[in-house]
Structures are given as structure tokens and as C-alpha cells.
Design a protein that fits this description.
The protein has 165 residues and is mostly helical. It has a domain at 36-134: Winged helix-like DNA-binding domain superfamily/Winged helix DNA-binding domain (Arc Repressor Mutant, subunit A, Orthogonal Bundle), CATH 1.10.10.10. 65% of the residues lie in helices and 6% in strands. The protein is built from six helices and two strands. Strands 1-2 form a two-stranded antiparallel ribbon. Helix 2 crosses helix 4 (75-87) and helix 2 crosses helix 5 (109-133). The protein is elongated and about 65 Å long. It starts with 10 loop residues before the first helix and ends with a helix.
């Protein structure tokens, strides 16, 4: 049986070779979240907006509370998000069929165009990521997944600690 070769790094080397690149990737992801794309509509959309559009496409006639749950945001945040998307003519609000008080949210034709373009974008992005990772061995992928999971737990713990202060 083949044994794994362990790499021993000094703390400073570990920070420079592993933690710093992770920080750069996280920073780039945060920067990406602040950028817009028009997804073929001519109207700039932030990632949070296009994700809401994609979710509404998956759940036609969705109520605001349900949408907030799907997106993992508060109802107040969902309300502001939908107001922006109504102004951008991506979604329409109306009363649900057979109801006088339940609001149903749906995509406009422009919103459907954005959702379709977003699907194409996600597929292209996924293909690029597959190209990057397909040469990685199963063992290395398992290690990457484990490290990612542990890092996520650690970051969630830090967030909870800061929220208590």
C-alpha cells in the first residue's frame, strides 16, 4: 500500500503558501460579487439580483417569504431586492391566483432573457472550472474538499464569535 508523503512546513511557510493564496481567492470572489453583467438585457445586474431572477424562474408565482427562504436572506432584504428588480423591469408583482393578499412574483420577458443568459454563463463557468480541476487526482480532490469544509467551519465559528461581541 502506498503511503502518503507528508509535507512539513514552518508556520510562516504555511501562511505564505496556503493561507495567503486562499485569502486572495476569497478577496477576488468578494470583488466579483460587486461587479455587474447585463446578461443580454442591456441592464446591469448584480450577482444577488441575477440569483434572485434564476430562483424566480425555478419557482414561478413565488411569494416574497418563500423567495427569501430560497435565497437565504431576510424578508426585508428580499423586499428591497424585488423593488430593484421591478424598477429594472425584470420581475412583476401581482396577486396570486385566487388570493386577495398573497403577492406572487414572476419574471418579465426581459427577466426570462436574463435567466437564460445566466444559465449559459453558469454552464461556461462550470466548464472552465472542470477544466482546471479535472487533472487533479481523486486523493487531492478529497484533501481539497476536506480542507474547504474545515475552513468553512472555522470561518462560521469566527463569524458567530464576532456576532456575540
Amino acid at each position: 500500500m502506498e503511503t502518503r508523503k507528508e509535507i512539513v512546513l514552518k508556520d510562516s511557510q504555511l501562511i505564505d503558501r496556503l493561507v495567503k493564496p486562499f485569502e486572495r481567492v476569497a478577496s477576488l470572489y468578494n470583488e466579483l460579487e460587486q461587479t455587474t453583467d447585463d446578461y443580454g438585457t442591456g441592464i446591469p445586474l448584480f450577482p444577488s439580483e441575477i440569483h434572485a431572477i434564476a430562483t424566480i424562474e425555478m419557482y414561478p408565482n413565488v411569494a416574497l417569504t418563500e423567495l427569501a427562504g430560497y435565497l437565504g436572506i431576510t424578508k426585508g432584504t428580499a423586499t428591497k431586492l424585488i423593488q430593484k428588480l421591478v424598477k429594472k423591469k425584470m420581475v412583476i408583482k401581482g396577486f396570486a391566483e385566487g388570493s386577495e393578499n398573497r403577492v406572487a412574483i414572476n419574471l418579465t420577458e426581459q427577466g426570462k432573457r436574463a435567466a437564460d443568459s445566466h444559465h449559459q454563463y453558469v454552464n461556461a463557468m462550470n466548464q472552465q472550472l472542470i477544466t482546471i480541476y479535472q487533472g487533479v487526482s481523486e486523493e487531492s480532490l478529497a484533501d481539497l474538499i476536506s480542507i474547504s469544509d474545515q475552513t468553512e467551519k472555522f470561518l462560521r465559528k469566527l463569524i458567530k464569535e464576532r456576532q456575540r461581541q
